[in-house]
Amino acid sequence: MALVSADSRIAELLTELHQLIKQTQEERSRSEHNLVNIQKTHERMQTENKTAKIAGLYNDSEPPRKTMRRGVLMTLLQQSAMTLPLWIGKPGDKPPPLCGAIPASGDYVAKPGDKVAARVKAVDGDEQWILAEVVSYSHATNKYEVDDIDEEGKERHTLSRRRIIPLPQWKANPETDPEALFQKEQLVLALYPQTTCFYRALIHTPPQRPQDDYSVLFEDTSYADGYSPPLNVAQRYVVACKEPKKK
């Protein structure tokens, strides 16, 4: 009986492994397709850029070039989200820190080049969370140097650790590790679509499949209930909110 049970368990694990490999292949195929599309978009933008210059419509310092650059940035951010690897553990393994909603360990230091959510002071004095890239970290001062990811207003900021939230390094699989995802009505910071800023939001629906995004409700006072209609945000750009919920 024990031998039959072991054989059954092995068969189950092999079936699960086959499904995960199939999902991984689907993700890879989707990513390759998107990379081709990005390349085509980039080439088209370069062609349009050159054509406009030849026509004498604008020079390098004028707004249309910035618009082109921002379009490429938005596409790259979307591609970065789609190619975030899916964490696949052995049976019984728990998802590690920075997988889905699981935060970094207390002593974690983000590496140069890592993308993070960074709380900075805006021009008007208000504070906001932006998407930034780590330049360096000083153990002497416990402070990061980060660059704003947005080329249009690119600035370097020196920030304490409490003003930095590392982004996930793996997607959590809803089918095998649902506990590694934010749950419905949980308060988070999410990257607003087509921007480089994070805003407070409530989880409307967690991902149901590995390739799915979160559906979130952004705080928005222009709506009667104080929240926007549901918007999709990739796992890569949803992190725990460090601020208390507004009353």
SSE layout:
Layout: H1 2-54, H2 63-82, E1 115-121, E2 127-138, E3 143-148, E4 156-160, E5 164-166, E6 187-191, E7 197-205, E8 214-218, E9 231-233, E10 238-240
Antiparallel strand pairs: 1-2, 1-5, 2-3, 2-7, 3-4, 6-7, 6-10, 7-8, 8-9
Helix pairs in contact: 1-2
Give structural attributes:
ten-stranded antiparallel β-sheet, 247 residues, SH3 type barrels, alpha+beta, 3 domains, single chain, globular
- What does the overall shape look like? globular
Could you give the order of the helices and strands?
A: HHEEEEEEEEEE
Strand proportion, as a percent range, falls in 15-25%
End-to-end separation in angstroms reads 59 Å
Mean pLDDT: 83
In angstroms, what is the radius of gyration?
21 Å
Entry summary:
The protein contains two helices and ten strands. With 247 residues, the chain is of the alpha+beta class. It folds into three domains: 2-82, no CATH class; 115-166, SH3 type barrels, CATH 2.30.30.140; 178-240, SH3 type barrels (Roll), CATH 2.30.30.
Structural features, described:
With 247 residues, this protein is α+β, with helices and mostly antiparallel strands. The chain folds into 3 domains: 2-82, no CATH class; 115-166, SH3 type barrels, CATH 2.30.30.140; 178-240, SH3 type barrels (Roll). Helices cover 30% and strands 23% of the residues. The chain has helices at residues 2-54, 63-82; strands spanning 115-121, 127-138, 143-148, 156-160, 164-166, 187-191, 197-205, 214-218, 231-233, 238-240. Strands 1, 2, 3, 4, 5, 6, 7, 8, 9 and 10 form a 10-stranded antiparallel sheet that branches. A hairpin with a 4-residue loop joins strand 2 and strand 3. It is globular.
